[in-house]
Design a protein that fits this description.
The structure is a homodimer.
Chain A: E1 7-14, H1 25-40, E2 49-53, H2 61-67, E3 76-80, H3 85-98, E4 104-112, H4 128-131, H5 136-151, H6 155-169, H7 183-188, E5 191-193, E6 196-197, E7 206-215, E8 227-235, H8 250-263, E9 272-274, H9 280-289, H10 298-303, H11 320-323, H12 328-344, E10 357-364, E11 374-381
Parallel strand pairs in A: 2-3, 2-4, 9-10
Antiparallel strand pairs in A: 1-7, 1-8, 4-7, 5-6, 8-11, 10-11
């Protein structure tokens, strides 16, 4: 019944992720799109449809961004799925090509969090959990405590994730942080939500990222080295196990099962992954959900160095959300930019040697207020 | 290359459109979804993906709405395209079925404009046109003036559109206005933007609408009488002619040409249409863009009564945006609810006799601030 075409990423670009209050969201979003088009060898007039992901970008953001760079007169859609907004936009751009209605599409994401005044991620009015203080850092802090209790995971193991990701992004010129942090610096930074100190949490910042997609059968017509999309999964909804076991993200477990089935692969086949590490405990929980180790074994995986760039399953060579930064709508697309680079072998000092199969995992919404908005997982191959 | 499946609407529901500040947007959105599911004979567990259109509904609206009615664990996406948000959501729901990745999908739209405090439709900060007062009513007022100058269109002809649409929605229990207005009442209502008085403008209000889609090949398994989607077009972008001829919406002209080509039909084949009449001049301009008459002949079409329910090409039997109301994100889906009813023959006293082919036209963004966000046109058949 389903007869989908192969789709490839043929161009990629991203802005610096940083606090850039002097730039409008449009200023932020346009250069990466132009970079992605140039990388692909695609002219603005060849883009047949565009998909924009943003949470706080306002009405008609995609149209406003594209107008000024000569992309007009095509279908443009704006998508919002919290942290998964950009990766949800990518999914719709993928489906448009896979279904055959378009041959070349553009997916991009943009966010200007400094425009929100520097406070916490805004939540809806009347949100019971938020009113009680169950904000994202609190949710992940509880998950961390529970994981420690349940499996003996230590705060040092969690801190090592921050150390690893900061170490990786020293080599990423687009990253918000570009210096190494020691274990002590992570452990001794300001407390945010016990046991998570500041350096266990991703920063807020501004940024944008873009990729160009084309039908694999046409991908060679353009000059950007194509990277194939092997599987695309979007899942939403409540944890099935709700609060009964908060160390397990049911949403990510479900999405992982679906994406491995679609890709015809298992976790042992993944050479490199960008994983949603808004908090250190997040990356650790998602190791388990993605099958990189058994449930409860995340701390050991870190201790073994398995997720370092030189390890068995390198995670977040870009620096991840923790260090590269997390301008919400841009994040999912930026992960794809990184994996595209990794599979092309162009990532320089943060390159994972011989990477052939890559994964991006982006999940929007924890518990409070967001109702597990969406988990998107994409698998790519050379 | 493109091999899409047939898609049908198998269930439809909508809330009352009205100022309903006592209801949350979630309270507004859930009943129409349940109605649409019941109409279709589809259980919540049978919905395989859901697409939510809203402009001001906030992050993760679709997930929040669906959580409470037992729809979870499926892909959910939130779409924003200004006035075309709901119809853009419908388009993605259609593509998901047409491409074969899902068999049964849900599209809905919801908006609570009273939550915005009753002021004008908010525009982005730093929008040059908006800062100069070129808001929607002003844009359409200039279009009206230009149409009058260019073609001799009269304010009475425009007012007749409001009279017609208010007359139609007397028979629509969901409409925001449910009484007749005379030509004099329209002409003598409070001036908003010369020459457009209040009754030339759609009201603000709250509401929601939902439809269930299924692959046509499976549509008979459910008990809702199916209505086929014959064509779906989404276009975005600037007027090609920009301000050179503001009586012509290039976006709607382009989308109309594309949808007629996709449907293999012409304007003479359309039995009934729901058209984006946020202002009376809008409906008149779009008569011309949709080919219901030649450019400049919109006024004559009205004088002939051709767009009345008993006319040659009935437009807005529901009452349209002018009278049924315009809770932005809900509007495009509500148009589809109406056309579904018209093609099923269930519209009672506002039924267009013998309607077999129907059209919905929803366009988001005029000139100022919105950059011609999107025009969506869908064609349906019995």
């Amino acid at each position: 019944m389903v007869s989908l075409r192969g789709v490839s990423v043929i161009g990629a670009g991203m802005s610096r992720f940083a606090k850039q209050p002097e730039l409008s969201i449009i200023d932020l979003a346009q250069p990466p799109i132009l970079d992605a088009l140039e990388d692909a060898g695609v002219t603005p007039g060849q883009v047949q449809a565009a998909y924009c992901g943003s949470v706080f970008g306002g009405s008609g953001l995609g149209q406003k961004v594209l107008k000024g760079i000569g992309i007009s007169g095509i279908p443009i859609l704006n998508l919002e799925n919290a942290c998964s907004s950009g990766s949800s936009a990518f999914r719709e751009a993928w489906l448009a090509v896979a279904s055959g209605i378009h041959d070349v599409t553009l997916a991009f994401g943009a966010e200007k969090l400094t425009a929100l005044g520097g406070g916490a991620y805004p939540l809806g009015e009347g949100d019971i959990e938020a009113d009680q203080g169950i904000l994202m850092p609190a949710v992940y802090a509880m998950r961390a405590r529970r994981h420690m209790t349940e499996y003996g995971t230590t705060i040092e193991q969690l801190a090592k994730i921050a150390v690893k990701n900061h170490s990786n992004s020293v080599h990423n010129a687009q990253a918000q942080y570009q210096r190494e942090y020691t274990l002590e610096e992570v452990l001794n930074s300001r407390m945010v939500a016990d046991p998570l100190t500041l350096l266990h949490c991703c920063p807020t910042g501004d940024g944008a990222a873009a990729v160009v997609l084309a039908a694999t059968e046409f991908a060679d017509r353009f000059h950007g080295k194509p990277v194939k999309v092997r599987a695309s999964v979007l899942q939403s909804g409540l944890f099935k196990n709700d609060f009964r076991d908060m160390t397990k993200s049911d949403l990510s477990y479900r999405a992982a099962a679906a994406v491995y089935e679609m890709a015809g692969l298992g976790p042992e086949d993944i050479d490199v992954a960008e994983v949603h590490d808004a908090f250190t405990i997040g990356e650790l929980m998602y190791y388990e959900a993605l099958g990189f180790c058994a449930p409860g074994e995340g701390g050991r995986l870190i201790d073994e160095g398995a997720t370092e760039i030189t390890g068995r399953i390198p995670v977040n060579p870009s620096g991840g959300l923790l260090s590269k930064g997390h301008p919400v709508g841009a994040t999912g697309v930026a992960q794809i930019v990184e994996i595209t680079g990794q599979l092309r072998g162009t990532c320089g000092r943060r390159q994972v040697a011989g990477a052939r199969i890559g994964m991006t995992h982006c999940t929007g919404g924890g518990v409070a207020g967001f109702d597990h908005i969406a988990c998107t997982i994409h698998v790519f191959e050379q």
